[in-house]
Each structure stands twice: as C-alpha cells, then as structure tokens.
Design brief:
five-stranded parallel β-sheet; Rossmann fold; alpha/beta; 15-stranded parallel β-sheet
Length: 854
C-alpha cells in the first residue's frame, strides 16, 4: 500500500506551519501560540494516519474520521496560504498616513487590524476542529506508524515511450475480421447497424478503432464519423459531435434547427460509417429520433454501436450483434507477460510465470484487468510481491456484475500519493475527453499536486513524468504525439474509478442535478445549456471553499453563454479557487472582481471571441501561473501592467494591438511557454525578450503582420521549442554580431509551416543549437529552394520532416554526416522525392525513410 493522501496533505500543512512559526509577523500578530499548538496537535495525528488508512475499509466511523480530518487540513491550507499572501504586506500601519486615511482604512476590509482578527479567528477555528479530531481518535485504537513511500519513478525501457504504435491487440484478430465482414457485405438497408456487446474492459472501443482505421474501411466509406455517447444521450451534443468529426467545423455559431440542417447537408448522398461508442441509453424513442436524421446517406451506410447493454443492442441493431468474449487463458497470459516483464516474455523467471498464471486466471479474460496487474508488477522480480497480489481477494472479477473496478483499485492503491491525486483530478473532465499535456501540467501545478525533491527540476517536466508513469500503469491511454505537445485519454472504467475515489470532494453539475450539499472542493459544469444562475443554485453555501470550477463541455461544443451573476459578480465568492476553466464561455467583459481571487493559479478564458476587455486589476493576481487568451480574437488590448504577474509560467495571447506593451511580457522571468495566435494587427514581438530567462517554448500562429523575430530571441538560452505557423511576412534572419560565433543555444525542436516569405533557414539560431537540435519540421514553405550547406552541422538531428516544399530539389551535401538521424519523412515534394530515389546511398544511413507522393 502506498502512502496515504491524507498523510501527504498533513505533511504539507505541517511544512506551511513550520515556515510561519518563529517569523516576526506571527509574533506581531499574536499567532505564534496558536500555530505552535496547531503544529503539535497535527504532528500527533499524523503519526496514526497510516494505521487509520489501513483499517478504514472495515470501519465506517474511521472512514468518516479520515474524511473530516482531510476536510480540516484542506481548510487549514487555505487559511495558511491566505496568511502567507497577506502578512508581508500588512505587518504594520505606516505612520506617515494621514488620520483620515487611517480612519477610512480602519473601516476597510484591507485594514491590517481587521485582517489580523479575521485570520486569527480562522486559525483558532481550525485549531479547535483539529483538537476535536485528535480527541476522537481514541475511539479507534490507532497505533503510530509511517507509510511506505512510493516514488513515481520512471523505469527504463517500455515505460519511457507511450507513443509507440500499438500492434493488433492479442486475441482480437478474429473479432476484427467478423466486424469487417459485416461492414463489407452489401445491404439494401439505408443504414445498417452493428452492435459490439461486452462487459467493461473487454476492449470494445479498441476493437472498433482497429476496424475504423483499417485501409479497407477507408476505401469503402468516403465519410467517417466517431462519437462517444456515454451515459448522456444528448441529441444536440451528438449532432454537433458528428459534424465536428466529419468536418472539424466549429459548431459554436449553430443553433437549434441550424445544427440539424448542417448535419443533413453533410450526410446527404454520402456513404458513411458512424461509430456510436459506449452507448447506455435504453429508451427506444431517443434512438429513433437520431436514426431519422441518418437516413439521408447512400444505401450501404453503416453504424457501429459499442455497448455493455444487451438491451441497447436489441433496440439499435438491424443485424446480428457481435458479443465480445474474454481472452483465453493463453491469450491472457501472453498479454500479462507483455506488460509484466521487460522482455515481454519472462523467460528467465519461470516461477513468476507460474504465479502469473494464477493471477491472470482470476481476471476472467478481461484485458484491462490483465494489463493493469501486469503493469503493476512490471520489472518487479520479488516473488513475495507477486504472491501478495495473487493472494489479495479484493480484486476478484465477477463477469456477471461487470465488476472489475476492484482490480483497477488494487493498481490505484499501489500508486504514490501525488499520482493518486493527479489521476483522480482528471475525472472532472467527461469520458472520452482529449487531454493536452501542456494544460494538464498546469491543472496539477495550480492545485499543488506535483512533488519533487530536485530544486532544479521544472514542475512541467515532473508533470510529464507523472503522465508517462500513469500511462505505463494503464491509467491513461491513446497517447498521440504532435511534436510540440501530446494528447491522451482515459478508459471509461478508469474514469469510473477516479470518480469513485473522489465522491466527497467532486461534484458534476448538469440540468438534472439536485442541489449539492456539503463542502466540496471541485465542480464540473457538465451542460452547456445551464446558465450561471442555475449553476449557482445547485451549489450549497458551504461549498464556497471550492478550488476548481471547470466547464469542459463548452470547450468542445462552444455554445455556452454563462449569463447573469456568475461571471459578473458571484465569481468573487469563490475566494479560495485555484483553477477557473472557462474555455469557450461567451461574455464580453471580465469583471474587476477577478482581482479578489488571490489564490488563483490557472485562468482559462480561451475561445471567447466575445471578450473585449481584460481589466487592469487582473495584474494583481500575482500567484497566477497560467493565463489562456487563445482564440479571444475580439480582445482589444492586453493589460498594461502584465509585468506584475511575476508567477506566470504559461501564457497564450490573442490581441488586436499593433505593439505589445513596453516592459510587459518581456519582463516575465518565470514564463516557460508563450503562444501568440491570431494577433492580426501585431507587427512585432517585444524587443526585450532577453528578459524571458525561463522561456522554453515559443509558438507563433496565424499572425499575418509580424515582419521578423527580434534579435534578442538569440539570448533565450533555455528555449527548447520554436514553432512558427502561418506568419506569411515573417523574416527569420538575424544579424550576426562579434560574439555570436560563440553563441550556444539549447533548441531541441524547430517547426515552421506556411511561411511564404521563407527563402532560407535561420542560421544563427540553428547552428547555435547544433549540439541539441533533435527534431525539425518544414511544411508548406513554397519559396524555400534549398537547404543550406551548413545543414550538415546539425549532428544531433534525429527526425526530419519536409512536406509540400515544391521548390526543394535535393537534400544538402554532407547529409550523410547526420549519423544521429533516425527518421526522414518527405511528403508532397516531387523533385526532392525523385532525387532521393535516384541517390539512395545519400540517405542509406537513415533507419526509417518515408517518401510519400501527394
């Protein structure tokens, strides 16, 4: 069993108290005694938390005691953090202030005496609650112990690359061919429906993906659509998702009958394949309503339905259903060995294989359970640990009850506390949600979930390691690498597991929700039609200590107009909120009250083309680490004092300004990621970019007026990725200066797309990164005629992609010197491809060469 989450939180609170005890401000505010007493009480409670965690499964009262303890610890974090924010600024009232100003401030909420009383009262209240919890522990006969620490270490080998292409899943080739035969056979039906039925975790979605992506299917169906239905058979949502899947169109402007009309246009006279994944709806009328929309396709159109319900299959299928069975013992063992042993076979561990046979025998052929346990035991050759898993009776599978969550929980229990908290947080987003690693890192960071003992390690890197470990343990899947970021998903059963672990802290609010009682910490707004007032009506006043408010549905379907009080004034009531995910919420003005959210670390306002104004008061949010203004094309200007946001690490900008504020973004020394997108009037970046001492990623997209990169970019010594797309006038050439021949940069990825003015690569940047540059992509650069002779100096380059650069006719001389080059992809460059085919020796040293004609 890994260390407990409650133990971990208690440790964090004690650390915060320790940092305050003995400081002048705690003495000045007469809080020293309360803080020391709080520290002593919590230390004694912390000693028995591990034992309480072990015994809670069989004791409801003990489980309630732990819940109350966790609740008071989270409240303590809020109060102590508030003290940390305010104390340095409020130690004394300055004597030089006039009497009138003193009197007015005395009756103000910012008065230091009033503030001191407020915080003092809150700390005393926390201490009293904790004293009661300490008193109650005597009822449980708890013993002092320390949990075993499990560090989220990344093992070498298989675990380090979640992007490797998945081969055909073990034991599913026959199933694939049966589904293919259904799809390929001619029918007279306008729409033919095939259902794949099986319990959770059998691999219905994986099987469907195998079929959906098959080359034979691509040739047979000109139009393909995929939508995850889940337990919300919302007619409007499904129509929008089908439109988006077919065309990648933004549906935010479509309303009512316009949605139906657009889908009708897309389907008319098309032979299509539609996947309805994970269907739960057992009401025939809802299916009939959807089916009536799908009759406009050409005869022979097909629909694949995946479901756990036989009744769903009976309602929807027009032909025989395919009932997916569990894997055989041999197939299960083969899958288990693939994940449990470094070599995928375990030939050197016959005893472990014998134990493994017993373990997979209890999994009843469910691939998700087999993979989860194999991943749990990966590279662990301790026979005792294997026997402990074999002898654990909590995860035995009952296929009739579709009960494999206990198996998954066994793997969850063996995660470290930070990984548990990071994993469960992802359930705030809906099933089949596509997570972006850059954003997930900021979610976790905003809530203080990331831990590292290395002061030199960036938290973004820690977050990426967490994601890879969670993938290696089977908690995340479907990783897709986009070179500058990656995406992933969660299996729906893993999503169910995460929800089951968070019931007392998380609430999912939609139109059908009742009022949410109790002190919950995280809210997910699950319905784009639910307006602000209705959202607030479902939240009990006790829940104003919420830390996250997330609107994930709006991000995908883009039609949420949160009206009334929520954005305008009630947002300020959530004073302890750390994360506001308001992507695609449409409103015109962000209120000044945003400045009262001093705990806020993450603010996502992206994809709001109605937003016109950001108040200057936002610059008071000096703890803000993430600000997304991507897609806010109506935003007139950025705040003048953005330089005051000293903790910003991730910034995405859209603005109508021609020039960025002087001494603005260039002063953000903590900034690691900067993305300028759709700044249609912007003529240049800030000249003082050398102030961005921590910047690691710079992305420029759809900025038609930017003429050049500033020379100061060459001083960004930590820059690792530079991506420039659709900036047709930009000039990448920089002036050489006397000291530049010794310039050393650390660029690892260089990506340019749709740069009409590009005639040469930026020599200064790339040669200065010759020892570090690993990936280069050059795409749709029609005026690039040749790669320079100095290209052969990029000896660290591992992957080169060149796409639709029609004037390129040959690779540069000396390319054979690029001995690190592992993959070369050339697509849509006729002359260049012909040259490579005629002179294969030039690239014979490259292990993977892909020459793709248009």
């Amino acid at each position: 069993m890994a260390e407990s989450i409650v133990f971990d939180i208690a440790t964090e609170v004690l650390t915060k108290i320790g940092s305050l005890v003995g400081r002048q401000v705690s003495l000045l505010w007469n809080l020293e005694s309360d803080l020391r007493r709080l520290e002593g009480t919590l230390s004694s409670i912390k000693a028995v938390i591990s034992d309480a965690e072990k015994k809670q499964a069989c004791n409801d009262q003990l489980r309630d005691w732990l819940r109350k303890l966790k609740d008071v610890l989270l409240d303590a974090e809020d109060v102590l953090e508030e003290f940390e924010f305010q104390a340095p600024k409020r130690e004394v009232v300055r004597q030089k202030r006039s009497t009138i100003r003193k009197v007015s401030q005395f009756f103000s909420s910012s008065n230091p005496v009033v503030l001191r009383c407020q915080i003092s009262h809150k700390i005393k209240e926390i201490r009293e609650r904790l004293d009661q919890i300490a008193s109650d522990r005597s009822r449980f006969s708890l013993i002092e112990s320390t949990p075993v620490e499990v560090r989220p270490v990344i093992l070498k080998g298989r675990e380090t690359d979640p992007f490797l292409g998945a081969s055909c899943p073990i034991g599913r080739e026959d199933d694939k061919e049966k589904i293919m035969s259904f799809l390929l056979q001619p029918t007279d039906n306008n729409v033919y429906v095939i259902s794949i039925v099986g319990i959770g975790g059998l691999g219905k979605t994986t099987l469907t993906k195998m079929v959906y992506n098959a080359e034979r299917v691509n040739k047979l169906f000109p139009l393909k659509m995929w939508t995850c239905v889940s337990d919300d058979f919302d007619f409007t949502r499904l129509m929008k998702e089908m439109i988006y899947s077919a065309t990648r169109e933004d549906c935010s402007k479509l309303k009512g009958d316009e949605i139906r009309k657009r889908l009708h246009e897309i389907l008319t006279d098309k032979k299509f394949l539609l996947v309805l994944d994970d269907v739960w709806n057992e009401k025939p009328q809802k299916w009939i309503e959807l089916k009536d929309l799908l009759v406009n396709g050409v005869n022979g159109s097909k629909i694949i339905v995946s479901t756990r319900s036989k009744k769903v299959a009976e309602i929807m299928s027009t032909g025989p259903s395919h009932f997916l069975q569990g894997l055989s013992n041999e197939e299960s063992l083969s899958l288990f060995k693939k994940y449990a042993f470094k070599d995928g076979e375990g030939k050197d561990f016959p005893r472990l294989i014998e134990i493994g046979k017993d373990i997979v025998g209890k999994c009843k052929g469910v691939p998700l359970a087999v993979r989860s346990l194999g991943s749990l035991l990966y590279a662990n050759t301790d026979e005792h640990e294997w026997l402990k898993i074999k002898g654990n009776n909590i995860w035995q599978v009952d296929q009739d009850n579709e009960d494999i969550l206990p198996v998954l929980k066994l793997s969850y229990d063996h995660l470290s506390s930070p990984l548990k908290r990071c994993f469960t947080y992802l359930c705030l987003f809906p099933k089949d949600y596509e997570y972006i690693n850059l954003h997930v890192a900021q979610y976790w960071m905003a809530l203080g979930l990331l831990k590292t003992s290395d002061k030199n390690e960036e938290l973004e890197d820690v977050a990426n390691q967490y994601m890879i470990v969670l993938w290696s343990r089977g908690f995340l899947e479907d990783f897709l690498d986009y070179n500058v970021h990656w995406t992933f998903k969660m299996h729906d059963l893993m999503h169910d597991l995460a929800i089951s672990m968070t019931e007392s802290e998380f609430a999912f609010i939609n139109v059908g929700s009742h009022k949410v009682d109790g002190k919950l910490r995280h809210f997910s707004h699950g319905d784009t039609e639910l307006c602000g007032e209705e959202f607030l009506q479902r939240i009990d006043d006790n829940s104003r200590s919420v830390r996250s408010i997330v609107f994930p549905a709006a991000e995908k379907y883009g039609d949420a107009r949160i009206i009334g009080s929520f954005i305008r004034k009630d947002i300020s009531k959530f004073k302890y909120v750390r994360l506001l995910h308001l992507c695609s919420i449409l409103f015109e003005v962000l209120p000044n009250s945003i400045c009262t959210l001093r705990h806020l670390r993450y603010l996502d306002l992206a994809c709001n083309d109605s937003l016109k104004k950001i108040p200057e008061s936002i610059c008071e949010l000096q703890n803000l680490q993430m600000l997304r203004l991507y897609g806010c094309s109506g935003l007139r200007k950025l705040p003048n004092n953005i330089r005051k946001m000293i903790c910003l690490r991730h910034l995405e900008i859209a603005t109508q300004e021609e020039v960025l504020p002087e001494n603005g973004i260039g002063c953000l020394s903590s900034l690691q990621f900067l993305y300028l997108c759709e700044c249609n009037s912007l003529r240049s970046l800030c000249e003082g970019m050398q102030g961005l001492k921590s910047l690691r990623k710079l992305f420029l997209t759809d900025n038609p007026m930017i003429l050049s990169l500033p020379d100061t970019i060459k001083y960004l010594t930590k820059l690792e990725a530079l991506a420039i797309r659709s900036c047709p006038k930009i000039n990448l050439k920089m002036e050489l200066q006397g000291e530049d021949h010794e310039l050393r940069l650390g660029l690892k990825k260089f990506i340019i797309k749709k740069l009409e003015s590009l005639v040469d690569l930026p020599q200064l940047l790339l040669q200065a990164s010759a020892d570090t540059l690993k990936y280069m992509q050059i795409k749709d650069c029609g005026n690039l005629e040749a790669l320079p002779e100095w290209f052969q100096n990029l000896t660290s380059l591992e992957k080169l992609e060149i796409t639709r650069c029609h004037k390129l006719s040959s690779l540069p001389e000396g390319i054979e010197r690029l001995t690190s080059l592992k993959e070369l992809k050339i697509e849509g460059c006729p002359s260049l491809i012909e040259s490579c085919r005629n002179d294969e020796l030039k690239i014979a040293h490259v292990p993977v060469v892909r020459l793709i004609d248009e």
